[in-house]
Amino acid sequence: DFGVVNDCARFYQQHESRGRRIPEIEGLVSTSDDGAKLLDDAELQIIESSSSNEVRYEEENVCLLEIHSDHAELVKLIQTRSVVRCPKEINGVPVTIMRMDNADKAHMRVFYASSNATTISAGACRNCDKLESARLFNGLKSIESSAFEACVSLSGIVLPESVESVGDRCFAGCRSLRSAKIPPNTRSISDNAFEDCPMLVIY
């Protein structure tokens, strides 16, 4: 509970001075006549959420990473690149979740997931129509729904031995997909995970 607006302003200033960044509110803070920073309700909700979860944001390569106490998440790409390599870790914190919640991924041709990744989130690479190759590493456990849906240039995929589940429509509409290697340890594959992949051979 931050109390009055001025308390919120002080929190933001302390937050900023510690080098922690919340990109959503940068440039959105207004200033009162006495120079205090004023926050509206939406900004306050973002700050409260960040404070309670101890979240901070940092950039590496072209990746914006959301850093929690025990893991980090690839939130989005901050530049358009054809080859994207997600870092294994950031400041000693493993990058385990691949999200990519933005449109800049549309120009991505090759994607290297973090070698510490455990989850490819729902829709992470959906509609990346230029994506030709996705490199996934052992330790990955879950590929969620529509993660690679409609990646029409993707020609092949090798799932690591550690993958346990492949979600709904995960690779649906990947019409250039010719081969998919599924490890024997995979316990759950949605019935329509590879729907509308006319050239596909599964190994």
Task: Describe the structure concisely for a colleague.
This protein is an alpha/beta fold.
Model description:
Helices cover 13% and strands 26% of the residues. The chain is α/β, with parallel strands linked by helices. The strands form 4 sheets. Strands 3, 4, 5, 7, 8, 10, 12, 14 and 16 form a 9-stranded mixed beta sheet that branches. The chain has a 3-stranded parallel beta sheet with strand order 6-9-11, with no helix packed on it. A 3-stranded parallel beta sheet has the order 13-15-17, with no helix packed on it. Strand 1 and strand 2 form a beta hairpin. The protein is globular and about 45 Å long.
Describe this protein with a few key phrases.
9-stranded mixed sheet; 26% strand; alpha/beta; 203 residues; single chain; disordered N terminus; 17 strands; 3-stranded parallel sheet
Shape: globular
What would you call the structural class?
alpha/beta
Q: What distance separates the N and C termini?
A: 55 Å
Number of beta strands? 17
Helix content: 10-25%
Number of helices: 2
Radius of gyration: 20 Å
One letter per element, helices H and strands E, the order comes to HEEHEEEEEEEEEEEEEEE
Main sheet overview? 9 strands, mixed
Name the beta content range: 25-35%
Please state the average pLDDT score.
Answer: 80
pLDDT under 50 segments (min length 5)?
1-9, 14-52
What topology emerges from the helices and strands here?
Elements: H1 5-17, E1 30-31, E2 37-38, H2 41-53, E3 56-60, E4 63-67, E5 72-77, E6 83-85, E7 89-90, E8 93-98, E9 110-112, E10 119-120, E11 133-135, E12 142-143, E13 156-158, E14 165-166, E15 179-181, E16 188-189, E17 201-202
Parallel strand pairs: 5-8, 6-9, 8-10, 9-11, 10-12, 12-14, 13-15, 14-16, 15-17
Antiparallel strand pairs: 1-2, 3-4, 4-5, 7-8
